[in-house]
Amino acid sequence: MDNIETINVWDNIRSLKLPVYIYGMGDGADKVLEIMAIKGIEPAGVFASDEFVRGQMFHGFKVMKLSEVEAEVGEFVVVLAFGTNRPEVIAHIKKIAKKHPLFAPDMAVTGFDPNRLFSYREELNRVYSLFEDDYSKALFTDIVNFKISGKIDYLSRTTDFVEILPDLSEKEVFADCGAYTGDTIGIFCEKVNNKYKHIYGFEPSAKTFAKLQKNTANLENITLYNAAVWSENTEIVSGNFDSRNNSLINVKNGKNLVKAVRLDDIAPDATIVKLDVEGAEAEALSGMEKLLKRGVKLICAVYHKNDDLWEIPLLIKKINPDYRFKLRRIPCLPAWDIFLCAY
After folding, report:
1. What is the pLDDT of residues 109-130, one digit of tens each?
2. Distance of alpha carbon 48 from alpha carbon 55, whole angstroms
Protein backbone atom coordinates (compact mmCIF):
# COMPACT_ATOMS: atom_id res chain seq x y z
CA MET A 1 0.00 0.00 0.00
CA ASP A 2 1.35 3.42 -1.00
CA ASN A 3 0.41 7.03 -0.24
CA ILE A 4 -0.91 6.38 3.26
CA GLU A 5 -1.81 9.34 5.48
CA THR A 6 0.67 9.99 8.28
CA ILE A 7 -1.23 12.57 10.36
CA ASN A 8 -4.21 11.42 12.42
CA VAL A 9 -7.56 13.16 12.57
CA TRP A 10 -6.99 14.77 15.96
CA ASP A 11 -3.66 16.27 14.95
CA ASN A 12 -5.30 17.49 11.73
CA ILE A 13 -7.95 19.30 13.78
CA ARG A 14 -5.43 20.67 16.26
CA SER A 15 -3.11 21.97 13.53
CA LEU A 16 -5.74 24.32 12.07
CA LYS A 17 -5.93 26.34 15.30
CA LEU A 18 -9.57 27.26 14.72
CA PRO A 19 -12.65 26.99 16.96
CA VAL A 20 -14.02 23.44 16.86
CA TYR A 21 -17.78 22.88 16.59
CA ILE A 22 -19.45 19.50 16.98
CA TYR A 23 -22.09 18.72 14.34
CA GLY A 24 -24.74 16.50 15.90
CA MET A 25 -26.14 15.34 19.22
CA GLY A 26 -26.57 11.91 20.75
CA ASP A 27 -24.34 8.87 21.34
CA GLY A 28 -21.86 9.77 18.60
CA ALA A 29 -21.38 13.28 19.96
CA ASP A 30 -20.94 11.86 23.47
CA LYS A 31 -18.07 9.70 22.20
CA VAL A 32 -16.48 12.51 20.18
CA LEU A 33 -16.54 14.90 23.14
CA GLU A 34 -15.09 12.21 25.41
CA ILE A 35 -12.16 11.60 23.05
CA MET A 36 -11.62 15.33 22.48
CA ALA A 37 -11.27 15.77 26.23
CA ILE A 38 -8.61 13.04 26.28
CA LYS A 39 -6.81 14.64 23.33
CA GLY A 40 -6.92 18.10 24.93
CA ILE A 41 -9.09 19.64 22.21
CA GLU A 42 -11.57 22.14 23.62
CA PRO A 43 -14.93 22.31 21.79
CA ALA A 44 -16.28 25.78 21.08
CA GLY A 45 -19.88 24.67 20.67
CA VAL A 46 -22.44 22.34 19.12
CA PHE A 47 -24.74 22.77 16.14
CA ALA A 48 -27.39 20.59 14.55
CA SER A 49 -29.50 20.51 11.41
CA ASP A 50 -32.03 23.34 11.46
CA GLU A 51 -35.03 21.05 11.97
CA PHE A 52 -33.49 19.67 15.21
CA VAL A 53 -32.64 23.03 16.82
CA ARG A 54 -35.20 24.01 19.42
CA GLY A 55 -33.18 25.93 21.98
CA GLN A 56 -31.95 22.78 23.74
CA MET A 57 -28.67 22.31 25.59
CA PHE A 58 -26.09 19.57 25.00
CA HIS A 59 -23.13 19.03 27.35
CA GLY A 60 -23.51 22.58 28.59
CA PHE A 61 -23.63 24.11 25.10
CA LYS A 62 -26.68 25.76 23.59
CA VAL A 63 -27.35 23.88 20.36
CA MET A 64 -27.05 26.31 17.45
CA LYS A 65 -27.96 26.34 13.78
CA LEU A 66 -25.11 26.28 11.26
CA SER A 67 -26.08 29.75 10.03
CA GLU A 68 -25.84 31.05 13.60
CA VAL A 69 -22.33 29.65 14.02
CA GLU A 70 -21.26 31.12 10.67
CA ALA A 71 -22.62 34.55 11.59
CA GLU A 72 -21.06 34.50 15.04
CA VAL A 73 -17.68 32.87 14.39
CA GLY A 74 -16.76 32.94 10.71
CA GLU A 75 -13.84 30.48 10.37
CA PHE A 76 -14.20 27.21 12.31
CA VAL A 77 -13.66 23.44 12.14
CA VAL A 78 -16.60 21.03 11.93
CA VAL A 79 -16.38 17.61 13.62
CA LEU A 80 -19.09 15.25 12.36
CA ALA A 81 -20.54 13.28 15.27
CA PHE A 82 -23.23 11.08 13.73
CA GLY A 83 -23.66 8.58 10.95
CA THR A 84 -26.12 8.58 8.07
CA ASN A 85 -26.98 6.75 4.87
CA ARG A 86 -29.61 9.25 3.75
CA PRO A 87 -28.55 10.75 0.40
CA GLU A 88 -29.91 14.21 1.20
CA VAL A 89 -28.05 14.33 4.52
CA ILE A 90 -24.80 13.11 2.95
CA ALA A 91 -25.17 15.82 0.27
CA HIS A 92 -25.71 18.43 2.99
CA ILE A 93 -22.60 17.30 4.89
CA LYS A 94 -20.52 17.50 1.70
CA LYS A 95 -21.87 21.00 1.10
CA ILE A 96 -20.72 22.06 4.57
CA ALA A 97 -17.30 20.49 3.88
CA LYS A 98 -16.86 22.78 0.87
CA LYS A 99 -17.23 25.83 3.12
CA HIS A 100 -15.47 24.71 6.30
CA PRO A 101 -12.76 22.20 7.27
CA LEU A 102 -14.76 19.09 8.20
CA PHE A 103 -13.53 15.90 9.82
CA ALA A 104 -15.40 12.69 10.66
CA PRO A 105 -13.61 10.73 13.40
CA ASP A 106 -14.05 7.03 12.70
CA MET A 107 -16.35 5.65 15.38
CA ALA A 108 -16.77 1.87 15.32
CA VAL A 109 -18.79 -0.05 17.89
CA THR A 110 -15.70 -0.55 20.05
CA GLY A 111 -14.15 2.89 19.55
CA PHE A 112 -10.86 3.51 17.76
CA ASP A 113 -7.47 5.16 18.05
CA PRO A 114 -6.30 5.99 14.48
CA ASN A 115 -2.66 5.67 15.54
CA ARG A 116 -3.19 1.91 15.99
CA LEU A 117 -3.31 1.48 12.21
CA PHE A 118 0.37 2.34 12.02
CA SER A 119 1.09 -0.75 14.15
CA TYR A 120 -0.70 -3.04 11.68
CA ARG A 121 1.02 -2.03 8.45
CA GLU A 122 2.17 -5.63 7.79
CA GLU A 123 -1.37 -7.03 8.19
CA LEU A 124 -2.84 -4.24 6.07
CA ASN A 125 -0.37 -4.95 3.28
CA ARG A 126 -1.18 -8.67 3.42
CA VAL A 127 -4.92 -8.00 3.10
CA TYR A 128 -4.35 -5.44 0.34
CA SER A 129 -2.53 -8.09 -1.68
CA LEU A 130 -5.47 -10.50 -1.33
CA PHE A 131 -7.92 -8.37 -3.30
CA GLU A 132 -8.30 -9.54 -6.87
CA ASP A 133 -9.41 -6.24 -8.44
CA ASP A 134 -7.90 -2.76 -8.54
CA TYR A 135 -11.17 -1.19 -7.34
CA SER A 136 -11.02 -3.16 -4.08
CA LYS A 137 -7.38 -2.21 -3.54
CA ALA A 138 -8.17 1.47 -4.12
CA LEU A 139 -11.21 1.31 -1.82
CA PHE A 140 -9.21 -0.45 0.90
CA THR A 141 -6.54 2.26 0.70
CA ASP A 142 -9.22 4.98 0.83
CA ILE A 143 -10.79 3.44 3.94
CA VAL A 144 -7.45 3.17 5.74
CA ASN A 145 -6.65 6.78 4.85
CA PHE A 146 -10.05 7.93 6.08
CA LYS A 147 -9.70 6.05 9.36
CA ILE A 148 -6.37 7.79 9.97
CA SER A 149 -7.21 11.30 8.78
CA GLY A 150 -10.98 11.73 9.18
CA LYS A 151 -11.17 13.31 5.71
CA ILE A 152 -14.48 12.41 4.05
CA ASP A 153 -13.07 12.95 0.53
CA TYR A 154 -11.74 9.40 0.88
CA LEU A 155 -15.30 8.02 1.03
CA SER A 156 -16.36 8.61 -2.57
CA ARG A 157 -16.20 4.98 -3.83
CA THR A 158 -19.58 3.35 -3.17
CA THR A 159 -22.02 0.91 -4.73
CA ASP A 160 -25.55 -0.41 -4.15
CA PHE A 161 -26.01 -3.62 -2.16
CA VAL A 162 -27.63 -5.39 -5.11
CA GLU A 163 -24.37 -4.92 -7.04
CA ILE A 164 -22.46 -6.60 -4.21
CA LEU A 165 -24.33 -9.87 -4.73
CA PRO A 166 -22.50 -12.36 -6.98
CA ASP A 167 -24.07 -14.18 -9.90
CA LEU A 168 -26.86 -16.33 -8.48
CA SER A 169 -29.01 -19.21 -9.69
CA GLU A 170 -32.44 -20.57 -8.83
CA LYS A 171 -30.74 -23.24 -6.70
CA GLU A 172 -29.41 -20.81 -4.09
CA VAL A 173 -29.87 -21.32 -0.35
CA PHE A 174 -29.50 -17.89 1.25
CA ALA A 175 -28.61 -17.47 4.94
CA ASP A 176 -29.22 -13.87 5.98
CA CYS A 177 -27.51 -13.34 9.33
CA GLY A 178 -28.60 -10.04 10.77
CA ALA A 179 -31.73 -10.09 8.61
CA TYR A 180 -33.14 -6.97 10.31
CA THR A 181 -36.61 -6.34 8.83
CA GLY A 182 -35.98 -8.30 5.64
CA ASP A 183 -34.39 -5.63 3.45
CA THR A 184 -31.56 -7.80 2.11
CA ILE A 185 -33.89 -10.78 1.75
CA GLY A 186 -35.96 -8.56 -0.52
CA ILE A 187 -32.89 -7.60 -2.55
CA PHE A 188 -31.88 -11.26 -2.85
CA CYS A 189 -35.37 -12.25 -4.06
CA GLU A 190 -35.31 -9.47 -6.63
CA LYS A 191 -31.88 -10.59 -7.84
CA VAL A 192 -33.07 -14.19 -8.42
CA ASN A 193 -36.56 -13.23 -9.65
CA ASN A 194 -38.05 -15.03 -6.62
CA LYS A 195 -36.56 -18.33 -7.81
CA TYR A 196 -34.46 -19.94 -5.09
CA LYS A 197 -34.26 -23.15 -3.09
CA HIS A 198 -34.49 -21.83 0.47
CA ILE A 199 -33.95 -18.77 2.68
CA TYR A 200 -32.80 -18.75 6.30
CA GLY A 201 -33.17 -15.53 8.26
CA PHE A 202 -31.56 -14.83 11.65
CA GLU A 203 -32.49 -11.79 13.76
CA PRO A 204 -31.92 -11.63 17.56
CA SER A 205 -34.09 -8.60 18.36
CA ALA A 206 -37.61 -9.74 19.25
CA LYS A 207 -39.10 -6.43 18.15
CA THR A 208 -37.27 -6.43 14.83
CA PHE A 209 -37.94 -10.14 14.34
CA ALA A 210 -41.69 -9.45 14.40
CA LYS A 211 -41.23 -6.97 11.55
CA LEU A 212 -39.09 -9.51 9.68
CA GLN A 213 -41.87 -12.08 9.98
CA LYS A 214 -44.45 -9.60 8.71
CA ASN A 215 -42.33 -8.41 5.78
CA THR A 216 -41.52 -11.93 4.57
CA ALA A 217 -44.91 -13.53 5.18
CA ASN A 218 -45.61 -13.83 1.45
CA LEU A 219 -42.41 -15.77 0.72
CA GLU A 220 -42.22 -19.52 0.30
CA ASN A 221 -39.43 -21.83 1.48
CA ILE A 222 -38.21 -19.51 4.21
CA THR A 223 -37.25 -20.34 7.81
CA LEU A 224 -36.79 -17.55 10.32
CA TYR A 225 -34.95 -17.73 13.64
CA ASN A 226 -35.23 -15.23 16.48
CA ALA A 227 -31.58 -15.85 17.23
CA ALA A 228 -28.07 -14.55 16.78
CA VAL A 229 -25.37 -16.46 14.90
CA TRP A 230 -22.37 -17.35 17.04
CA SER A 231 -19.45 -19.73 17.49
CA GLU A 232 -21.54 -22.23 19.46
CA ASN A 233 -25.15 -23.08 20.29
CA THR A 234 -25.78 -21.16 23.49
CA GLU A 235 -27.38 -18.06 24.95
CA ILE A 236 -25.67 -14.69 24.94
CA VAL A 237 -26.42 -11.32 26.44
CA SER A 238 -27.84 -8.86 23.95
CA GLY A 239 -27.75 -5.11 23.76
CA ASN A 240 -31.01 -3.21 23.63
CA PHE A 241 -31.48 -4.12 19.96
CA ASP A 242 -33.16 -0.94 18.89
CA SER A 243 -32.37 1.52 16.13
CA ARG A 244 -29.85 3.40 18.29
CA ASN A 245 -28.09 0.41 19.85
CA ASN A 246 -28.43 -2.70 17.73
CA SER A 247 -25.38 -4.24 19.39
CA LEU A 248 -24.50 -7.77 20.33
CA ILE A 249 -22.30 -8.37 23.34
CA ASN A 250 -21.05 -11.64 24.82
CA VAL A 251 -21.20 -10.78 28.52
CA LYS A 252 -21.86 -13.23 31.33
CA ASN A 253 -23.93 -12.52 34.43
CA GLY A 254 -26.19 -10.15 32.55
CA LYS A 255 -29.78 -9.96 31.45
CA ASN A 256 -31.62 -9.99 28.11
CA LEU A 257 -30.37 -13.41 27.06
CA VAL A 258 -30.97 -14.32 23.43
CA LYS A 259 -30.58 -17.62 21.65
CA ALA A 260 -27.38 -18.02 19.61
CA VAL A 261 -26.71 -20.74 17.03
CA ARG A 262 -23.91 -22.12 14.87
CA LEU A 263 -24.63 -21.66 11.18
CA ASP A 264 -22.96 -25.01 10.37
CA ASP A 265 -25.69 -26.70 12.41
CA ILE A 266 -28.74 -24.70 11.34
CA ALA A 267 -28.02 -23.94 7.67
CA PRO A 268 -25.47 -26.52 6.48
CA ASP A 269 -26.90 -26.37 2.95
CA ALA A 270 -26.37 -22.61 2.52
CA THR A 271 -24.80 -21.56 -0.77
CA ILE A 272 -24.57 -17.84 0.05
CA VAL A 273 -24.27 -16.17 3.48
CA LYS A 274 -24.61 -12.54 4.46
CA LEU A 275 -23.07 -11.62 7.83
CA ASP A 276 -23.92 -8.21 9.25
CA VAL A 277 -24.18 -8.98 12.94
CA GLU A 278 -23.09 -5.85 14.80
CA GLY A 279 -19.58 -6.85 15.79
CA ALA A 280 -20.10 -10.59 16.17
CA GLU A 281 -18.79 -11.42 12.69
CA ALA A 282 -15.62 -13.19 13.87
CA GLU A 283 -17.61 -15.36 16.30
CA ALA A 284 -20.16 -16.16 13.58
CA LEU A 285 -17.38 -17.18 11.19
CA SER A 286 -16.04 -19.56 13.82
CA GLY A 287 -19.44 -21.23 13.84
CA MET A 288 -19.48 -21.79 10.07
CA GLU A 289 -16.06 -23.29 9.38
CA LYS A 290 -17.59 -26.25 7.52
CA LEU A 291 -19.43 -23.86 5.21
CA LEU A 292 -16.26 -21.85 4.64
CA LYS A 293 -14.20 -24.95 3.89
CA ARG A 294 -16.87 -25.91 1.36
CA GLY A 295 -16.44 -22.49 -0.28
CA VAL A 296 -19.83 -20.92 0.45
CA LYS A 297 -20.27 -17.48 -1.14
CA LEU A 298 -19.90 -14.91 1.63
CA ILE A 299 -20.73 -11.23 2.10
CA CYS A 300 -19.37 -10.15 5.49
CA ALA A 301 -19.50 -6.76 7.23
CA VAL A 302 -16.04 -5.53 8.26
CA TYR A 303 -16.85 -2.17 9.85
CA HIS A 304 -18.29 -2.77 13.32
CA LYS A 305 -14.83 -3.35 14.82
CA ASN A 306 -11.91 -1.60 13.17
CA ASP A 307 -9.63 -4.62 13.48
CA ASP A 308 -12.17 -6.63 11.45
CA LEU A 309 -10.98 -4.80 8.34
CA TRP A 310 -7.80 -6.91 8.36
CA GLU A 311 -8.52 -9.70 10.86
CA ILE A 312 -11.59 -11.12 9.09
CA PRO A 313 -10.01 -11.53 5.63
CA LEU A 314 -6.99 -13.20 7.22
CA LEU A 315 -9.24 -15.47 9.31
CA ILE A 316 -11.23 -16.58 6.26
CA LYS A 317 -8.07 -17.13 4.23
CA LYS A 318 -6.66 -19.29 7.03
CA ILE A 319 -9.80 -21.46 7.06
CA ASN A 320 -9.95 -21.75 3.26
CA PRO A 321 -6.91 -20.52 1.26
CA ASP A 322 -8.84 -20.82 -2.01
CA TYR A 323 -11.10 -17.83 -1.36
CA ARG A 324 -10.83 -14.77 -3.57
CA PHE A 325 -11.75 -11.37 -2.12
CA LYS A 326 -13.42 -8.16 -3.19
CA LEU A 327 -14.26 -5.12 -1.05
CA ARG A 328 -17.33 -2.93 -1.49
CA ARG A 329 -18.96 -0.10 0.46
CA ILE A 330 -22.55 1.18 0.45
CA PRO A 331 -23.08 4.99 0.55
CA CYS A 332 -22.80 6.13 4.16
CA LEU A 333 -20.96 8.64 6.34
CA PRO A 334 -18.66 7.87 8.10
CA ALA A 335 -16.99 4.66 6.82
CA TRP A 336 -19.69 2.18 7.73
CA ASP A 337 -21.43 -0.44 5.58
CA ILE A 338 -18.15 -1.95 4.34
CA PHE A 339 -18.48 -5.51 3.06
CA LEU A 340 -15.91 -8.18 2.28
CA CYS A 341 -17.05 -10.39 -0.58
CA ALA A 342 -15.48 -13.85 -0.55
CA TYR A 343 -16.06 -16.33 -3.42
Report:
1. 555 677 778 889 999 999 999 9
2. 11
